[in-house]
Amino acid sequence: MLRHFIVRAMTQKENTSVEVDLKALEVRVDELIRACDFLKEENKSLKLKQDSLISERAALIEKTELAKTRIESMITRLKSLET
Description:
This protein is mainly alpha-helical. Helix content is 98%, strand content 0%. It has one helix at 2-82. It is rod-shaped, with a radius of gyration of 35 Å. It starts with a helix and ends with a helix.
């Protein structure tokens, strides 16, 4: 009878330990889900920012090329005036 009581007490301790471990695991999984959601949102935001910067860069390159062409044209006209 004493043996049955000791085995039963150990089983209850093991169940409590398993429950604590499962609760800790559940908390950790919830943390990972929140971290994943945060990273998804951050990634989405960064992709939008990257797209915006790529467009801005393309516009600046176009403006630079236009300015370069205009300056080259002005230099050519100035050289023709010298002669």
